[in-house]
Amino acid sequence: MTRIGMACTICGKHQAFSYDQVTCICGGTLLVQYDMELAAKTMTKQAIQSRSASMWRYKELLPVSSPEGIVTLGEGWTPLTRINIQEIGLPISHVWIKREELNPTGSFKARGMSVAVSLLKERGVQCAAISSNGNAASALAAYAGCAGIEAFVFLPEDCPPLIVHECLSYGARTFRVQGLIQDASQWVEVGKQLRGWSSVATLKEPGRVEGKKTMGFELAEQWGWKLPSVIIYPTGGGSGLIGMWKAFHELKQLGMISDPMPRMVSVQDAGCSPLVSAMGKPVPVLDAPAATGMRVPWPPDLDLLVRILKESGGTAVAVRQVEIDEAQRNLGYRGVSSSPEGAATLAGLLKLCEEGWIRPDDSVVLFNTCHGLKYGKSLDLKGNPLLTNLNELFNKNC
Ligand SMILES: Cc1ncc(COP(=O)(O)O)c(C=O)c1O
């Protein structure tokens, strides 16, 4: 096993590995550390290439103690598709989209939950709980179900109905809570105290950051062990951002990449954009935030997110609902079913091109973190301009 402990992102202090203590006494977040020399012996580019098409191809840098304990549904190794967006007026030709909607449970949350639930199983946990905007909850429901662990999931009451249905269909005890994600969190804390539940909420355990880290490993590998100049990621609690940043550092440590780090960009909903404000950019609040994974008013470690964006030379950008809707259509016309979060990355790209922050020679990777179908509200197709009445089929205007 290569897992050797944890280190604090603020004071750097090393500590023993813990399944449920990920905050240092100084307040910093603790991240898993590995014996990199040992990992380097077997985690070579050649060895990885011959492994299964899943995120577990990077097993040396995942914290599970034995391969038999892995709870997997085949997550990861999602396609990285080049998209042509010059037609929509963007002065940039090197744009790719990481197709995270093709993960089990339809979102990138499967990666984190595969590791988190593997660790719960390793520890012999019976009941796990989460507060979530939806996708992490359904991923917990699916993986916990496979591991024989009872899942309790707490969602804001306006969570998209299909995601609520998904949680139920995987067998989770599912609760809708008045308010936002932080209101749902209180119930997890109560269950922890009264019933001894294990929390897998954002930055409450070490596995989810590690699982999401594999997005960074994959991106590097799919790019021929090179890195794009810009990554645009829809940010809520921020564990994906932390994970990818950690991935690039680990690959550098192993000598597997030598490119400069990408400029990391967080995109958020203009109605709820704490990271954009913390980066010193004013955001006029014009709309209420939509019920998406980006709606996290108080990310658990905002300072760390700011540090990552600044260290990378990146930025944060807020986008409005109308811009997200338009981006969703533009991705749809290119064969990509995007969630509002995924579409927000294209809307953010547009904005940053307009501002001149993204240059024509930049190479950009967008993350479509979830499938658009999970956000369907109803099957009412009335008024959709693409739905043609049969009577008009051979009309001269058709
Ligand atoms: C589809 C989607 N994208 C992005 C996010 C934000 O992810 P993170 O918590 O890593 O910032 C979420 C979180 O719920 C999500 O469901």
CATH A-level architecture of the domain at 80-103 and 209-375: 3-Layer(aba) Sandwich
Largest sheet entry: 6 strands, mixed
- Give the strand tally: 13
Strand order of the largest sheet: 4-5-13-10-11-12
User: Could you name the CATH class of the domain at 80-103 and 209-375?
Assistant: Alpha Beta
**Approximate shape:** globular
- Give the ligands present: pyridoxal-5'-phosphate
Helix content: 25-40%
Q: Whole-number average pLDDT? A: 95
CATH topology title of the domain at 80-103 and 209-375: Rossmann fold
Coarse structural class: alpha/beta
Number of helices: 12
Hey, roughly how much beta strand do the residues contain? 15-25%
Radius of gyration: 21 Å
Runs with pLDDT <50, length 5+?
A: none
